[in-house]
């Protein structure tokens, strides 16, 4: 069953079409890669899906409900949550408290939120840093903290915006394994924006390519690397 349907979504900023008539759907539990050159409209699409912007046209249907314009906190309660390209944790709070903020989306109990937060910090391998100040973490651990925070909201669907950006190869590999583990444990659907082509090809079952706001192509990783229009617009001959 499709958990997410994007139907003819457009987003205009004045005369600029950041997204133009984009349509695709995602099956429950799958990993979809979202790629495209800088400025292609990937982050704008995440914003339209998760309620940070209402789409100018078209529909976003999540788990059978039309979301258009629904606020991000309500979208989060329905089970869809995103990470941000620029990770900004609550710097003066502990790592644990940052993750508890995510958990409090679903429970009013601090005790339960603390338990959920510890559980998710274990999942991302940060439980030994739960008392550290979030602002003191290096970038690789901030990215993991961001994933723990969204997992603590107990989502049905995660949208991950460049979670490997700025990481070294070893740190990227840890995030790849984390994304694959989340899939393995079942249930959570993931959409991933990533510029690292090797990573996106490894983790994605399907890939949507945006270019100048429009959907240029959609298919399996193999279909995408062999798509001439994608190679010309984005991948370049070296790929
Ligand atoms: N709030 C906004 N106001 C005006 N223009 C915007 C706004 N947000 C995005 N844009 C423009 O929309 C286009 C798409 O931007 P977007 O950030 O979605 O691209 P992207 O594919 O995520 O790029 P990148 O890979 O560099 O992160 C760009 O031309 C950008 O300048």
From TrEMBL:
One Gene Ontology term, aspect cellular component: plasma membrane
Keywords associated with the record: ATP-binding, Nucleotide-binding, Transport
Keyword Methyltransferase: no
Record Pfam families: ABC_tran (PF00005), BCA_ABC_TP_C (PF12399)
Domain ABC transporter: 4-237
Record bears the keyword ATP-binding: yes
A GO molecular-function annotation: L-valine transmembrane transporter activity
GO biological process: D-alanine transmembrane transport; L-alanine transport; L-isoleucine import across plasma membrane; L-valine import across plasma membrane
InterPro entries recorded: AAA+_ATPase, ABC_AA/LPS_Transport, ABC_transporter-like_ATP-bd, BCA_ABC_TP_C, P-loop_NTPase
PANTHER family linked to this entry: AMINO ACID ABC TRANSPORTER ATP-BINDING PROTEIN, CONSERVED COMPONENT OF ABC TRANSPORTER FOR NATURAL AMINO ACIDS-RELATED
Protein name: Branched-chain amino acid ABC transporter, ATP-binding protein
């Amino acid at each position: 069953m499709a958990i997410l349907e994007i139907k003819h979504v457009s987003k205009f900023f004045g005369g600029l079409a950041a997204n133009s008539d984009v349509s695709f759907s995602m099956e429950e539990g799958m990993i979809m890669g979202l790629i495209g050159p800088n400025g292609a409209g990937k982050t704008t699409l995440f914003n339209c899906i998760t309620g940070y912007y209402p789409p100018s046209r078209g529909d976003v249907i999540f788990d059978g409900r039309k979301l258009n314009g629904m606020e991000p906190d309500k979208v989060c309660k329905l089970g869809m949550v995103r990470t941000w390209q620029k990770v900004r944790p609550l710097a003066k709070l502990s790592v644990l408290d940052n993750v508890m903020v995510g958990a409090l989306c679903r429970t009013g109990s601090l005790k339960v939120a603390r338990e959920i937060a510890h559980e998710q910090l274990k999942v991302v391998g940060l439980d030994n840093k739960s008392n550290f100040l979030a602002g003191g973490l290096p970038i690789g651990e901030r990215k993991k903290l961001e994933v723990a925070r969204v997992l603590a909201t107990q989502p049905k669907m995660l949208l991950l915006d460049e979670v490997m950006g700025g990481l070294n190869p070893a740190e990227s590999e840890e995030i790849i394994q984390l994304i694959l583990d989340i899939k393995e444990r079942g249930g959570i659907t993931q959409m991933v924006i990533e510029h690292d082509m090797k990573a996106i090809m490894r983790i994605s079952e399907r890939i949507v390519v945006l270019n100048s706001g429009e959907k240029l192509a959609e298919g399996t990783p193999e279909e995408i690397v062999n798509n001439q229009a994608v190679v010309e617009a984005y991948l370049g001959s070296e790929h």
